[in-house]
Design a protein that fits this description.
Largest sheet: 3 strands, antiparallel
Distance between the termini: 49 Å
Number of strands: 3
Helix content: 55-70%
Radius of gyration: 23 Å
Structural class: alpha+beta
Strand order of the largest sheet: 1-2-3
Shape: flat
Number of domains: 2
């Protein structure tokens, strides 16, 4: 057995554990700062900003979930003639993708009318039974890339 290689292996394992702990701590600090910075970006109307060679952008994700329960959503999909989203239940990812398409249309109309839009506007843009069965959530996150 080559003891020097074994020692190098153990040394690298120890270093890996240190780096994993440091990464976990760094991710937590990033999450904490994001919680503080997202409202500042939103309140100030800033979409992106370049600092120290990185561009930080505000991104919005839209999610759909049952307002009350999944069965209400299934029934609303049937009534809305959106049966392609139903198997035994419904595919949440496909449904969310559909809601995001509707949200893009709602956003385009709102821009033409020079007004902001929100979750209620998206719900109103959905077929009537479905809009009443879904909770629409806008989630803002920060993304960073090299400038």
């Amino acid at each position: 057995m080559n003891i020097s290689q074994l020692k190098e292996f153990v040394c690298l394992e120890n270093r890996k554990k240190e780096l994993d702990a440091e990464l976990k701590q760094t991710k937590q600090k990033l999450d904490d700062l994001e919680q503080i910075l997202v409202p500042q970006f939103v309140d100030d109307g800033v979409q992106n900003m370049t600092v120290d060679g990185r561009t930080v952008s505000l991104a919005q994700d839209i999610y759909a979930s049952p307002l009350i329960d999944r069965e209400d959503v299934v029934n609303a999909l049937r009534k809305s003639e959106l049966g392609q989203y139903i198997a035994e239940n419904y595919n949440a990812n496909s449904l969310t993708a559909f809601v995001r398409e509707v949200a893009r249309e709602v956003e385009a109309r709102a821009k033409q009318e020079q007004r902001p839009y929100d979750e209620n506007d998206v719900r109103a843009g959905l077929p009537a039974p479905l809009g009443g069965a879904l909770k629409i959530s806008f989630v803002h996150v920060l993304r960073s890339r090299k400038a």
